[in-house]
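Running this now, will post back.
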Amino acid sequence: MKRLDEIPKKQIFTVPDGYFEDLPMRIQARIQTTESKSSWIPEFNLALKFALPVVLVGVISLIVWVNLPNTEDALANLDAVSTEQLLAYLEADEISTEEIIENGNFTNAAINSLYQQPEELTTHELDELAQQYDLNF
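Update: finished.
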């Protein structure tokens, strides 16, 4: 085996003349950036980041508020409907008393009056009611 001292030393790589003297200037030239002009675009982007969510929440709120049903108009329209028409509607839809009580705003006295036994009616009164509501017995 040869020792390291016995191996001849050769320069395998060659360096051009003045390479290391010019190296710092060449690196500086490559990485040197031009000074950027002051612009309003970065400030606009920052403002847009904060303003856009606020604007979106505002637009969504406006859309929801405009599309909400107006209960005052519904109550005014309901006042225009006669009691007979309301009764006919409730009978046609087969809504039970329990469903009406669950979905309505009634006082306890009004609810108790629904479950009271009706007064005794005469045959003549029953016939009149049957004719009024087109009931055939």
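The radius of gyration is 46 Å. More later if anyone needs it.
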